[in-house]
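In practice, a research group might receive sequence data for several interacting partners and want a quick structural hypothesis before committing to experiments. The following worked case mirrors that situation: the sequences arrive first, and a predicted assembly follows.
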Amino acid sequence: MCRINLNKNSFTRWLLGCFLFPFLTLASDPICIRDQAGNPIPHAYVKIGPDKVVPVDSTGSFELPDNLEADQLIEVFAMGFDARQIRVREISELSSLRLTEKIGQMGEVVVAATRTDRSVEDLPMPVTVISREQIQETGGMRLSEVLREQTGLQVVSDHGAGLQMQGLSSEYILILLDGEPLIGRTAGTFDLDRISVTNIERIEVLRGPSSAIYGSEAMAGVINIITKTNGERFAASLESRYRSFSTMDLSAETSFNQNDWSVQAYLNRFRTDGFDLNPDVPGNTQAPFQATTGQVKLGKKSGRWEFRLYSRMYREDSDNVLQLIENGAGRLADMSSERRDVNLNPTVIYRPNEHWQLTLRSMTSLFETHSLTEMQEDGFVVDAQDFQQRYHRTEFQLDRQLGNNHLLTLGMGQLLETVDATRYEDLNRFDAGYLFLQHQWDPTDRWNIVTGVRGDLHSQYGERISPKISGMYKFSEKFSWQASLGAGFKAPDFRQLLLNFNNASAGYYVFGANLVQEGIERLQSQGLVQQVLLDPSQFGALQAESSLAINTGFRWKLSNDLLFQGNFFQNNISNLIETAPFARLTSGQNAFSYFNVSRVRTRGIELDWTWRLTKNLQVSAGYMYLDANDLDVLEQIDSGELFRRDADNRTRRVGRSDYGGLFNRSRHSGNLKISYQEPLSGINLALRAIHRGAFGFGDVNGNLILDDPAEYARALTSWNLSLSKAFRNGLLLETGGFNLLNQLNRYDPTNPGRTLFVGAKVPFHQLVKTK
Amino acid sequence: MNKWNTLYAGILLLALSTSCGETEVEEPEITLQAVMVENLHAPGDLMDRSTGVITEVRPFRYFSLEDNRVVDSEQGDWDIGFKGTTIIVNSGSSGPGTAQASVVTGTFDEITSVPSAADFKRDGEDGMAIPTGSGNGWYNYNPSSHIISPIPGRIVLVRTNKGNYAKVEILSYYQDNPPLAEVDPRTTPSPYYTFRFLLQPNGSLDF
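A structural hypothesis for the assembly, expressed as tokens:
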């Protein structure tokens, strides 16, 4: 079967066009192709012998010609399902034919990896898909709650709920919404709580810098959030969840499809009282907040043309209380903050024929935050911060199918970014352009190769060439091995280049790399500089952080019901940007700037088992081993230059065995998931145990590295349960809870403890139909 | 105000007795003992927190390693001085004396002599003998917990005004030398230096 094609749907049509024998006379009663739940599969196709194809209509039904031998073998295919072979004799006794879904989302289509539709099992890169059903099963409201249950992904609190992947933090992970980058990061973290999940169709997770399509930020990987597209003529539904901490999530969706026009609208309202892990200290651990998300998607197909216009807006308001201690006395201050996010994403696609596809798309985004801290007593403004970022990207992509085993993709784009903030001087602007070329090639049935290169040209850090190669060899239908090598990079961000910050109360200064010369001259003219430690005129420009990564692993389908996958990864990152002092001030404090100093290595293994025991029962288990080290620290340890103080205040050398690696990384993590459908009541049960091993929370013995047992937060397993029942009319009721054993950890401020929820989904269009 | 606690005053001379039967008299052997200084309060300048302007300049707290005591005046015979996180030596830009210092890496006990590589410097416009700033000299500043901690394994070697060598280890920046895990930088009083030192009074390089 051909694996490379521009568009999976047109591919089916193309097959039909090529092979359909017009002289076949139809006989027999229609047979409906259904999934295990009994729903028709409209996109299936039926093959008789080597080259005859029978059409399947939109209700999933087909009819066989009557001139077939009883022994004739028929093959039934559908995307996402295991193919089924059956003889004419057997099929004539059936009125419906059931297909089994491919295990472990192997059949799901992935766009993020190559910007073309390819199924997971055909991609030579470490890719996983989180399906609509899995998202539903978690009972989560925000994206962080869905992602934290996946093998190899952690959610870490650092200026918001940030994702950690392959041991790298949020600033190295590109977050896409329907293929377009989302902006708005605080100290590098993209807060996953900004994304509501009820309109997500699936989430694609691409690990490592294995795709040539993406540039900066995609060093650890890519998360592509695909929002729902409803093909029905009319649909409208209301979905609501309510849970502990007065948390409420309400979503309304509607869609129309007519005359090749499609319109979808989505509105979500979320509110929570937040929670407090330290009741003795004024203020909440998580501030109470309300958020509104709206999305409108317009689409029109017209012959060879397709037009899309997606738009989204987000607004969030939060309030908290802060205690400031001055001269030993605590005073309360009110903090309020607001975040806004607006995106507009038009796309035009032109398909002159099956071999060409041209796509022009753009993304325009605005991200704003405002925060204010005022003393409760006298309204004195302690701190007021504004931040505004605008982003525009236009990209042109050309796909060319050559034969049925080559697919070439050429892309070029331009981006413009501006930022205006309290802590930055003036309005700052970045311009960039890029070009990527990707070649997907199936030299034989067993080999599958994707090569690519991306070139970036940036107004701040110059040029960058990132080559990638991925290959997969199928030893058999059951076992394949893949390897992917890639260079990744992350450009210095606004903060690292442009920050102009003076901590008045502590007396220190921080200058972005672009302002450091100007900054030191100003401080010198004010007579504040005691000594220049590093001469700013000698600094080169701040370089992009760069990485070399390897991902290699296997997919082993022991049977149609048992899948075992593994992936080994190693990321070597150099030129990591950190702050360091460059001048000593007369006050005894320092002026800091950003430098390319550190080297980091993360490596590990991810393993996943999925086992379908019966039609109703599936068990899966995931595990990740992670080893993440600062290579400079290792060097210092090896040369005997690093020391520690023990509990008795004795100083001794740190050995390699003392060193626990980077903070906030768990050496061991994993999950166990059981999903069961009770046949009589039809109740779905999803029980998950999510384990996060011990991790270092911070330094307590003074040497700033993780090397003391007291520096670890203990391991924690969260038991989560969801029960749901879908009625015939589409109504869905659910209940369940997170962290049922109420495991708490003061070093994980994203974990509120036991949380219980109830929810309902009301599909109005189906209720109307049943009447 | 300052609690003074000298564990071992200065130097203990241990006279060795001769054993019976031996007639030779051995050279007297001197065992040097480390001295612990606790809670030397050395507040930094006062600053208006909203503007960053220094409103009151405070003096350094001067200390004589030779005499194991605080010296009141800059003009006195002191070796090192403390204010906030800054430690000065009595020379160059900091004082009228000739004291010098060098920061070396190792444990207090294993540094049994002044290494030949030690780079003794005076305080000057082009650098302080004990560099300031987190990670440079004697302390680390943890930006997430805001704790100032002495860098384990950093020993300050001082050449006193008299020309004798001493090794100094800063143990704590907080009152009563609490374990770091118990320090809350917002409430634990600081800067209260606790340090230990060992002075070789005979001018040799060995401790």
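Before designing any experiment, note the following. The interface with chain A takes residues 44-45, 47, 49-52, 54, 83-86, 105, 107-108, 125-128, 132-136, 140, 142, 144-145, 147, 149-154, 169, 171, 177, 179-181, 186-187 of chain B (CB under 8 Å). The radius of gyration of chain B is 19 Å.
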